[in-house]
Amino acid sequence: MSDRFRFVVVGGGIAGMEMATYLGNTLGRSGQADVTLIDSSFFHVWKPMLHEFAAGTIPNDRNRISFLAQASRKSFKFWPGALAGVDRTARTVALAPLQDEDGDILLEQRNLPYDALIVSIGSRANDFGIPGIAEHCRFIDNLTEADGFNADFRSLVLQAIGQSSSLQIAIVGGGATGVELAAELHRALDLSSSYGLGMDRADLHVTLLEAGPRILPAFPEAVSVESRRQLEALGITVHTSAQVTGADADGFVLGDGSRVEAKLKVWAAGVKASTATALFTDLEHSRAGQLKVRPTLQTTLDDRIFALGDCSFIRDKPVPATAQAARQQARHLSRQMKGWIAGKPIAPFRYRDRGAVVSLGDYNGWGTLGKYHFGGGPLRGLSARLGHDMLYRQHQMEIYGPVRALAAWGADQLDEFVRPSVRLD
Ligand SMILES: Cc1cc2nc3c(=O)[nH]c(=O)nc-3n(C[C@H](O)[C@H](O)[C@H](O)COP(=O)(O)OP(=O)(O)OC[C@H]3O[C@@H](n4cnc5c(N)ncnc54)[C@H](O)[C@@H]3O)c2cc1C
Q1: 329 in ligand 1 pocket by Cβ < 6 Å?
Q2: Which atom of ligand 1 is closest in space to residue 322's alpha carbon?
Q3: Which InterPro entries does its entry note (predicted)?
């Protein structure tokens, strides 16, 4: 058995994939450490694209990356399986048995030893236990859920066309996910029309429900106001201060007793850590279930367990649950690890607010430059949309390297030229 230092990264999303890639490419390639990535899925996806997969405006088969392929190129190992347990004394993690689609067991439960465990298992929308939400709403927190939504959406659009009726969709959550999904559904319909699928935009009724006084509460007020104006110009109904208290098969019930009828209901509100953080029973958690970490990104009670991205909560200085923060943390920590295994201290992580952008389909985009980035300022239109895409291209650069990232960008352009611009099957 190898006596090399063993890094185990659990969760290959934005933070975990960048972390495993860097560690594999440096310490793994040079034989200084063994790096293993675990994920419950076989594919890495850029989560901020999920609303586009859900609307069918971006093909998910071209925009997902096989963990096995990435592992073989970047000198780390990949094990498929969900985290099922952690033994901090023995320093092992357990992976749940892997089953095929029929439920037959392909791989029994496995235990993997670690010297350092990096937890980056992300988050989910939070239904706060509101009755009817789990049973009647679609979520779009992973590829399977986005695909499931898309299948429903396409069937219901076809039905509406066949019956010359309208289609009601209601989305709860006026954050970036809900806002972007609402605009993207309209875009999907516009694109479908150009292929002869004649559903009038007026027959698509999308309602966006937000409990707070304005949509996009994490953005400056001007961005909220402009985005709302744009959504309403598209025909989307926006209700703010709308507290959802329940859901049933036909729609949502609001706090004032009124109802919003909808055939397709989406829950895109709140953030809570992935449930597997509860397996770390003797570590500290935030109210949203995230693992509490120090500025070194080490968990407050265990120096060998790190947490990054949406599933972590930096004590005293929390950072937003965004792709940008996840990337910054992965970049910071991955560069510290070589020194740390040689006995050096880890420099504290400092979040740099580089602004935030919300993309409203092809119709517009709004956002801000960060407080410390060129002095800050608003972005709109094309520059905002480019800013949105830029974050994804930077991520590709980190995990692919410049040549393959450029090739991937070129392949995307060719793909757009060749394929229908919306999913039609
Ligand atoms: C529709 C949508 C749109 C968004 N748009 C934006 C945006 O425009 N800008 C922005 O900054 N942010 C956006 N976000 C938020 C952003 O995607 C997240 O903040 C970011 O993905 C967090 O990265 P992460 O690495 O912490 O987790 P993730 O990227 O979520 O990765 C978590 C990984 O852990 C794996 N995993 C989960 N549980 C287990 C388990 N038990 N065992 C093993 N593996 C597990 C998952 O399969 C996944 O690969 C959006 C989110 C959504 C849902």
Answers
A1: no
A2: 19
A3: FAD/NAD-bd_sf (IPR036188), FAD/NAD-binding_dom (IPR023753), NADH-Q_oxidoreductase (IPR051169)
